[in-house]
Amino acid sequence: MEPIQFIGAKELDDFEKEIINKLANEYYQKISRSLRNIASVILDLKVYDKAGRRQKYSLHIRVTGPFKTIEASAVDWELAKVTHEAFEAIEREIQHIFHTDTPIDRKLLTKKKRKRNE
Q1: Would you list the DSSP string of 2-49?
Q2: Closest Cα to residue 78, out of 38, 33, 4, 23?
Q3: Does 102 or 72 have the greater pLDDT score?
Q4: Which residue has the higher pLDDT, 67 or 41?
Q5: Using alpha carbons only, how large is the chain's radius of gyration in Å?
Q6: What is the CATH number of domain 4-117?
Q7: Sequence-separated (6 or more) residues with CB below 8 Å from residue 50
């Protein structure tokens, strides 16, 4: 199974597919650094107002693994902006749930464990 799955990418033209592929791969590398064992990343893209002058994009992202599923979404008129907003929301959720933004001092952890065992 591929690590990044796209749903609704058939509605995009080649230029838009290239943009979302590039950004998804960049953010996947960032996410995989903070979460070691990611099963899959699912991008669900919906395009609204196809017949009008402008298109509105809605992007829902789900990251699955042995932990609970993390979800985020964004809506905007620009595809690149929607992709950035949704992946940044995923990163905030990961920091919130797993506290990946604070470094852990391993020496203090081992001292605390030793005191508990004594």
Answers
A1: -SEEEESGGGS-HHHHHHHHHHHHHHHHHHHHHSS---EEEEEEEEE-
A2: 23
A3: 72
A4: 41
A5: 18
A6: 3.30.160.100
A7: 11
